């Protein structure tokens, strides 16, 4: 086994300017690559396109909702737009975004590995994702789908005459893409860690990816079989979920949410992992209560499987099962709160650097807390019945998904951008964008809590005139949010050519990814590193990397 | 291949060692763990439809008993025995690979393929009989022997076709993988140092057999419970 110190690794890295980007040229060298870093770039481009598409549907809805009358979109078109917004954002952006882009790029490097365990399967994941995305785009171009992203039966099986089959097929295929990504991550974390890199020395991003992968592996197949049964029912007219033929539509809801509630944790757990790494990097501290944060990821993954029926409180389940699922849903708050408290405790009396990733993560902590606490409102059976299918629910899950996951994705993208591209993004513009996103987000979604609480139902293109003021605020916020998202699209691309070179470790952060050159060489490290320090152990890591800490 | 000589022990590069692994041991452990993880996914995949089957079985015990009585226990029993034997031959093929016996690998893998094919042929015969009896759900469903439960029998047949169909699809994929493994065994790729592909093929094959061990009683043998 090698005994190269990281100091040597750095020197070797500095002597060569070969990296994963300029190692080979040509479109085929990207489309047939087995390098996890290049596959991450392929994913980055694909999920960005899907994010813009999903954002377009959202903007059209917000413009429609400027006025109480349904004047821009017909009710049918509006149904299609909120469905396609949900399908595109959930299956094609939120679920793959952090794992398949940032996880793919960073995870093997954080483990000191040359690649994921199964590079060909990693590439296959991307092709499955693309196949699903292309089917999804064909569906959108040829008329769309209007069932809501949940595909509830019997509407989806019997009454909707839009492209339900194509959309569910796309969801099915995208599911296999995420199963294979999760499988690859689990095996890589178990079998590919560098010498000395024990479980408690892993960055918390890795723990979060591990918990996410377990959920991907165990929940997604249930979605696959559920959508298969739905497709069979719709195609040959049999009655798995059709009451007229002896089936039960509530069973569909149970099976669907058995996947789709854990899927919420597929979306938020990676965000929590990014938050832990960024908080540590910009406070120059060990995360407070490392093991609690690590195991709370696993606890969330486990408890996430036991709460699905809180989506069914009004679907006719028995009051006793509703009470049990309500109790279990409250229980998820415990590990989530442990994380929030530990991040806060890490920030306490730290010298915090206010760079863009940290700004996004501070936003993330606050917004996720609001999203989580309003989740407790919804876990209470009585209050849930009051606000079911209102904008309160819409606001709640956007606080978690956009305020949580998208904020953390932006944080992670900025944090690791210098590593991915070797270039710095323009800090001033990035801070401006982070501020716009924070302000725009709150302006968009906070009014929706009030709207929902006073009774505005979701999924209608027209509404009562007294709701207009809050809706105008929300649409104004969405416009600010759009600017906040378009800015990074411009300056990040700009920085690839014009950004100043980042150097190996621009943040003075610890973690193996900061020990190799930026962009990393094709094999990540010129020699396998040996790890002798705990995660986020600044003095030990800085010593190993042969530099002095200058905070 | 990595051109770095790692460490001081002699580090010969096996032709099937992929560049991102340190050694064949790590590669072997990664492949088998990967297959186990995939099988976890498969358990949840079949588990979903089995759970739905179970809920309707509790709701409609009469119809389930009648419908199970329509299945041909002889064909189902033959297929069960055939699959169990194929699991034995598959396990022996893994053993043959571990001890590096090319000829026994080929014999056992080929035997596994033959038994798998017998299963699929028998399953095909059953399917065609059901089709003629009007037991395919949907507009082809013309079975009305017990009108009181006919609709629920159709629901049972949805599960029958769905579950055995998914199982048969896994068998067909398994047969395809067997052909590929037979090709590699023919080229004498496997031996005591490197037999992971045969082993993970075996894991997959045993899993598909175990699914059938659940399907057979659930779909064929519950008849006697309510209708003696």
The biggest beta sheet of chain B, please? none
CATH top level class name of chain B: Mainly Alpha
> What's the helix-strand series of chain A?
HHHHHHHHHHHHHHHHH
- The total count of helices of chain A amounts to 17
CATH topology of chain B: Four Helix Bundle (Hemerythrin (Met), subunit A)
Taking the alpha carbons of the first and last residues of chain B, their distance comes to: 66 Å
Instruction: Point out poorly predicted stretches of chain A.
Output: none
Largest interface: A-B, 47 and 42 residues
| Overall number of strands of chain A | 0
Radius of gyration of chain B from the CA trace?
22 Å
- Uncertain runs of chain B with pLDDT below 50, 5 residues or more? 1-10
For the biggest sheet of chain A, the summary is:
none
DSSP helix count of chain B? 7
Rounded to the nearest angstrom, the radius of gyration of chain A is 23 Å
Counting helices, strands and paired strands, the structural category of chain A is: mainly alpha
Give the strand content of chain B.
under 5%
CATH-scheme architecture of chain B: Up-down Bundle
The pLDDT mean of chain A sits at 93
How many domains of chain B? The number is 1
Q: Please, how many domains of chain A?
A: 1
Q: How would you classify the quaternary structure? A: heterodimer
Written overview of the protein:
With 551 residues, chain A is mainly alpha-helical. Chain A has one domain: Cytochrome c oxidase-like, subunit I domain (Cytochrome C Oxidase, Chain A). Chain A has helices spanning 6-15, 27-31, 36-64, 75-110, 119-141, 155-159, 164-191, 204-236, 249-283, 290-303, 319-347, 356-379, 381-387, 391-421, 427-453, 468-498, 538-544. The longest helix of chain A has 36 residues, at 75-110. Chain A is globular, with a radius of gyration of 23 Å. Chain B is mostly helical and 228 residues long. In chain B, 74% of the residues lie in helices and 0% in strands. In chain B, helix 1 (24-59) packs parallel to helix 6 and helix 5 packs antiparallel against helix 6. At the A-B interface, helix 7, helix 8 and helix 9 of A face helix 1 and helix 5 of B.
